[in-house]
Amino acid sequence: MNRILSDIVSVIKDELSKNLPDVKQSDFENDGAVFYMNGKNGTEYDWFVNEHLPSFMVFYDNEEKLGAAKADVYGSGDIMLYLYDDGGKHLVKEIPVALDINDEDLLALAVVLRNNADEKKIWDADVESISTDSDPAADEVQTFLDLRKYCEPSINRKRLMSKYAFVSKRIIEDGWKVGYMRRSDSTEDEDSGWEFYSGDEDDEYLNDDGNCLCYPVHVIVSIDPVLMKYIETPAEVSLVRVSSDEFEEDQGQQIHTEQWKNQ
Q1: In the chain, where are the structural domains located?
Q2: pLDDT tens readout for residues 167-182
Q3: Tell me, what's the pLDDT at 187?
Q4: What pLDDT does 258 receive?
Q5: pLDDT tens, 46-89?
Q6: Is the pLDDT of residue 9 over 60?
Q7: How far out from the chain centre does Cα 235 lie?
Q8: Residue of 205, 239, 236, 209 lying closest to 224 (CA atoms)
Q9: What is the mean pLDDT of the segment spanning 234-253?
């Protein structure tokens, strides 16, 4: 087994033993096997978009098959390990671990895992079933790096979702959906340019600084998921809600805000 992968497996098993001493090895699926969970998006997506390898997991061997341990291994070499008790229903501990590895070695592991798991259609499998002993050739590493271009839309979307937007307190605190939104050019790297309103705020309301809040875009989208369809619209646009799941470019329509409250 690849040295780094072996270290990851050891960290997971050691921390399970220390922090869940009352759970027996036989309580885990395949006696505590560590599974490489590449089945959702694949290795390159997690590597380039989420900046870590697909998760490594240990599962409880019960009817629900919930996770006992989940380890995210980041490109920096840091691991965030999540441990669960009560058959996987309760997060009991989050443990940060730093591996003594360099970027090149971890990239090589990502390439090996993609070549010997994803490419061979081995999904969400026990790491022992994946061949990881050999090092990738230079052209294999370059082929992997070239896959980043296919992930660019997702990378840009994730970056945008972490940026900030102005939002009316009526949306954050009063239970209204977005009735009107606009996006302007921004010179600040952390500013998305977006502003979100219920649509019936008057000048008096908006002139009170306490009524306009600053939140990451993903928070507003979580409140009103329909916004996701429009969130990458280029700047210098105003959009008005015309139905429960549709916006149109603002042409001076009257916004009937009452229908968007608490829906």
Answers
A1: 3-150, 163-260
A2: 999 999 998 999 999 9
A3: 84
A4: 47
A5: 999 999 999 999 999 999 999 999 999 999 889 999 999 999 99
A6: yes
A7: 25
A8: 239
A9: 88
Long-range contacts of 198-207 (CB under 8 A, 24+ apart): 198/168, 198/170, 198/171, 198/174, 198/257, 198/260, 198/261, 199/240, 199/241, 199/255, 199/257, 199/260, 200/255, 200/257, 201/168, 201/170
Token pair for 96 = 């940060």
Average pLDDT, the chain: 93
Report the distance separating Cα 193 and Cα 185, nearest Å: 6
Tokens found for residue 1: 């087994």
E-strand spans in the chain? 35-36, 56-59, 67-73, 78-85, 90-98, 125-126, 164-168, 180-183, 191-197, 212-216, 237-243, 246-249
> What does the DSSP assignment read for 166-235?
EEEHHHHTS-BPP-EEEE---SSTTEEEEEEE-S---HHHHTSGGGEEEEEHHHHHHHSGGGGGTTTPPS
